[in-house]
Automatic annotation (TrEMBL):
Organism lineage string: Bacteria, Bacillati, Actinomycetota, Actinomycetes, Pseudonocardiales
Gene3D superfamilies linked: Clp, N-terminal domain
Protein name: Clp protease
InterPro entries (alphabetical): Clp_N_dom_sf, Clp_R_N, CLPT1/2
One term of GO molecular function: peptidase activity
């Protein structure tokens, strides 16, 4: 049995310190409970992904968490669809991050699907975001990531379905962006978290492009943490 690192007393004290009114404390407790549910969901998802990388089957995973193979897949495998789903909800995405998703849709206007490569172009277009600045800092030379991404796009024009679906890689990258924000203790999802999510979704086109231009998850995370913590000045635009 794993020992719970968070004790009920600690949570009670945390809520009580922040609010004096009993009803405000109750509302805060409900909000905190929802956050803990989200953390728990992503905790399980992290180790599901780890199990898959080590070769575990969906049958094995289902047995480990007490559900059927089909139920495990339904819960943890993103499906190609126009809806982003509950995990990568855009509610806590910053305005810049929401623009990135809209820019991705724009770049996919001649495609059948919205892929991680379109999401990467959206990150690059949002030049004032920390993601674009991180890419500019780490890429082999200026503009190589954009060029490499454009070279990976399907040049044949397709009739766009309505509604247009997000690919499984794109949806997974956005889900992982939420996980990256939670892991870093942030209550918002910024462009930097989307970048880390894209890199963590290693099978997507965007992650492959970024690796080819020298942008790795480890280097990006280290740089982002230094900027956020104030150890490095915020890069200027241009």
């Amino acid at each position: 049995m794993v020992t719970t690192p968070i004790q009920l007393t600690d949570l009670i004290v945390t809520v009580a310190k922040e609010h004096e009114d009993a009803l405000h404390r109750l509302a805060a407790a409900v909000s905190l409970s929802e956050q803990l549910d989200e953390l728990g969901d992503h905790l399980i998802g992290h180790f599901v992904d780890e199990a898959r990388r080590t070769g575990a089957s969906w049958t094995d995973i289902g047995e480990s968490i007490g559900v059927s193979k089909q139920a495990a897949q339904k819960r943890f495998v993103p499906r190609e669809s126009p809806e982003l789903g509950s995990k990568p909800s855009l509610d806590r995405f910053t305005q810049r991050s929401q623009r990135v998703v809209n820019l991705a849709k724009h770049h996919a206007r001649f495609s059948e699907r919205i892929g991680s490569e379109h999401l990467l172009l959206g990150l690059l277009d949002e030049s004032g975001g920390l993601a674009a600045k991180t890419i500019r800092k780490l890429e082999a030379s200026d503009g190589t990531t954009r060029i490499a991404t454009l070279n990976r796009l399907d040049t044949e024009s397709h009739r766009r379905p309505d509604p247009q679906p997000f690919t499984t890689h794109c949806k997974k990258a956005l889900e992982l962006a939420v996980r990256e924000a939670l892991r870093m203790g942030h209550t918002f999802i910024g462009t930097e978290h989307i970048l880390l999510g894209v890199l963590a979704e290693e099978e997507g086109t965007a992650a492959q492009v970024l690796r080819s231009t020298g942008v790795t998850h480890q280097a990006a995370e280290a740089y982002i943490k230094q900027v956020v913590s104030g150890l490095l000045p915020t890069p200027r635009e241009g």
